[in-house]
Amino acid sequence: MNIVTDMTINTRRKYFVNIFVFVIFLLLVIPVFAKIDNESIVDVSVPKLSEDEIKGEDLYNQYCISCHGLNASGKKGKGPPLIHKIYKPNHHSDMSFVSAIRYGVKSHHWPFGDMKPIPQITDKEAYKIIKYLRKLQRYNNIYVE
Ligand code: HEC
Question: Which of 49, 87, 119, 132 is most buried, most CB within 10 Å of its CB?
Answer without folding.
Answer: 132
